[in-house]
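Weekly modeling sync, notes
Attendees: S.R. (lead), two postdocs, one rotation student

Agenda item 3: backlog of single-chain predictions. S.R. asked that every request posted to the team notebook include the full sequence so nobody has to chase files. The rotation student volunteered to paste the first one in as an example of the format we agreed on. Action items at the bottom.

Example entry:
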Amino acid sequence: MSRELSSLETAKLKMLYTNYSPMMFDGAIREKFEEIYHGIKVGVRDVPYDTLHNQIVANMVAGDTEYDVFMIDNIWLPEFVEAGWLAEVTEYITPEIKQNISPNALKAAEYPPGSGRYYALPWYVDTKYLFYNEKILSKAKIKAPPRTLDELWNQAMVIKKKGIVKYPIAWSWAQHECLICDYTILTALFGGRLVDEAGKPIFNKGGAVDALKWMMKTIDACIASWASLAFIESDVSRIFGTEDAAFTLSWLPEYEDINRPEFLAGACKITHVPGSDILPEGVSVNGSDLIGISSSSKNKDVAVEFIKFWTGIDKQKSYANWLAPSWLRLFDTPKIFQDGIFNILDVVEYQYKHMITRPRIPNYAVFSKELQLAIHEALLKIKTPQEALDEAAKRLTT
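Predicted structure, as returned to the notebook:
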């Protein structure tokens, strides 16, 4: 049965987003929405993640009304809210959502933190995991994956010394956001932080400096290749999927792809990110994505219905096999995951509970670019880690 919206008999919505996996956008789902909301047509444009932020910014700065709905990485929300580019959706955050959505995903949609004001609906939650090649570990007579950074280092050295893999660890450390994701994790494992409570840079102190020094050591010790400085996640998946690495940090959608018959055919296994002496339980990074409405949209009431539908529990069931949902009660029905992540639900749920966000600051895009540059200056030995981080912190505070 179709449903008419009283304010508009017909409308056309357009959405800008990044499709990490074919499962994330199923044309049948869009058709279902159009069937329910008779007369509403939805157009989507899929762009690479690395261009999504800038395309949204360019669209909004120009005052364009081409797009009604955006996919938003959680790190962009403060910037977009401060700029006035997102419509507030607080009234649609129901008690059911507050009780049943992953707290990490819901917090990512709130700004300022703790204000109770929301500018997007949580779409799905992702975080990084440690992927390891079971066959390589077996060949090296390693019985279990590493639980600490020290064990990761030692296992990588064993694999290297036995001549099984030249560079056992593959990192996605190109000058892109993937680098900051890994650096956020490692900084926390070494007891550091990127910003203080006021959002000011402190990545040039303590554990953040130690993390960068450790990153350098993995390359100097040749357990990771210099090529990691040019790798994004897709490059790492290719390297890992052809058995040229034993370990990597990656996102859940990559797990299915790497295990396809033409790659590792099930040899890719997954565990939570290794811990450290400071943080034995380990930690990962919040990769939640959100769906927000452009403040310039001429079809806000229709857009609200669309994002409620798109982020709803029924929609999430359609991709729950390989993308962990933000609706936590779906985990109470394991059969939903039977053909996909059923056997790794314990790992997924554990990592859900042990992850942190990157800095929630309005100038995050600039912050990230400056930090990426500083990390590369250190890794390439243009400057010492302390010099590179000090100079980046100074640039961001003057």
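Discussion: group reviewed the output briefly. The longest helix spans residues 364-379.
Action items: rotation student to repeat for the remaining queue; S.R. to check formatting next week.
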